[in-house]
Specification:
By secondary structure, this protein is an alpha/beta fold. The protein contains 13 helices and twelve strands. The protein folds into two domains: 229 residues, Spore Coat Polysaccharide Biosynthesis Protein SpsA, Chain A (Alpha-Beta Complex), CATH 3.90.550; 92 residues, no CATH class. Strands 1, 2, 3, 4, 5, 6, 7, 10, 11 and 12 form a ten-stranded mixed β-sheet that branches. A two-stranded antiparallel ribbon has the order 8-9. Strand 8 and strand 9 form a beta hairpin. About 2% of the residues have low confidence. InterPro entries: Glyco_trans_2-like, Nucleotide-diphossugar_trans.
């Protein structure tokens, strides 16, 4: 088998076990099947439904069980290191709550190979109604956008897919499905004891994809959207647009742990990139939005304020990572994606 491409996904208790039959079947039926598959299992019990299913039905999938839930960033970093050790050129990160179109992996690799400066490719992700087993035409993501306030969102999420999208550069990718050029990941990795760190492991879950998108962009790597690579995701699509209504809808549907991780990781992002020489309007917009977020938390979600204690504990680690940023482009290159 040619290990030019390595595919990786994370399993966790019953949250992923129910999806594996469809997910693995769609992987097996890919028109391009010359890839290696790795799974990191974060389940509580060693003999869980995820492990049992994979061992019985897909023994060719390599299973890595670290013994505890390391989080999204650390879990995928383990797989990326194994992909590097195997000599792979590309690493495809996937959530298992998805169904791949039969030409998905072929389209992703083809898009990545189009330009050696492409560091990552974001596919067209459509909503999969798992409960009713329907592949819908509602968009989940066409890549990540960024605003001057340093808010991040999925492009066209909640809109109906008209099939008219064209491949283009976007600011970033969503971690649900993305292919990386291994060379790009090695280029922007943080140095740490025990091995390189690709996704920022200070971010247990949420916004680690925003951060890695940022670092690839700063280092001069391109991130492109490829509409021919189609995949279906079982995630509730949000109302379209960037209105206050959408923000309120999204917050209402998030659990406390998710809100806490998101709040903390947003501040990690701000502290990591705030000293970059952005234009005055970007600095002002970012500062104003962060101020509003603190005021909101102080009034409506006071439990979030404890995340500042965690932020203080890791301030040295954040500063060290800020010093390791590869900055090869001017800030106008980042600002051209800001809305």
């Amino acid at each position: 088998m040619d290990n030019k491409l390595v595919v990786g996904f994370i399993t966790y208790n019953d949250l992923t076990a129910k999806y594996l039959p469809d997910f693995c079947d769609s992987l097996k039926k890919q028109s391009r099947s010359d890839f290696k598959v790795i799974a990191v299992d974060h389940s509580d019990q060693a003999e869980n439904d995820n492990i049992l299913f994979l061992r019985k039905n897909y023994p060719e999938i390599e299973i890595d069980r670290p013994g505890k839930n390391l989080g999204f960033a650390a879990g995928f970093n383990r797989m990326i290191r194994r992909a590097i050790d195997s000599g792979a050129e590309y690493f495809l990160a996937l959530n298992p709550d998805m169904i791949l179109d039969k030409d998905f992996t072929a389209a992703m690799v083809k898009a990545a190979e189009a330009d050696k400066k492409i560091g990552a490719v974001a596919p067209k992700i459509l909503k999969w109604d798992f409960a009713n087993y329907i592949r819908t035409d509602i968009i989940d993501s066409c890549g990540l956008s960024i605003t001057r306030e340093h808010r991040f969102s999925d492009i066209k999420q909640g809109e109906k897919d008209n099939g008219g999208q064209k491949g283009r550069e976007v600011f970033g990718f969503t971690g649900a499905a993305v292919i990386f050029r291994i060379e790009a990941l090695k280029d922007i990795a943080y140095d740490k004891a025990g091995g390189r760190e690709f996704f920022d492991e200070s971010m247990f879950m949420y916004k680690e994809d925003c951060d890695l998108s940022y670092r690839l962009r700063l280092a001069g790597w391109k991130i492109v959207f490829e509409p021919k690579a189609v995949i279906y995701h079982d995630r509730t699509a949000s109302p379209k647009g960037e209105s206050n209504l959408k923000i309120a809808f999204n917050r209402r549907n998030k659990s406390r742990p998710v809100k806490s991780w998101s709040f903390l990781n947003q501040w990690i992002l701000i502290l990591k990139y705030r000293q970059l020489p952005f234009s005055f309007r970007v600095k002002l917009a970012t500062a104003w939005y962060q101020l509003k977020s603190v005021v909101f938390a102080s009034i409506f979600e006071t439990y979030l304020l404890k995340e500042f204690r965690e932020l203080w504990k890791i301030r040295t680690k954040i500063a060290h990572k800020r010093e390791q940023l590869k900055i090869r482009v001017g800030m106008e290159e980042i600002e051209r994606f800001m809305t």
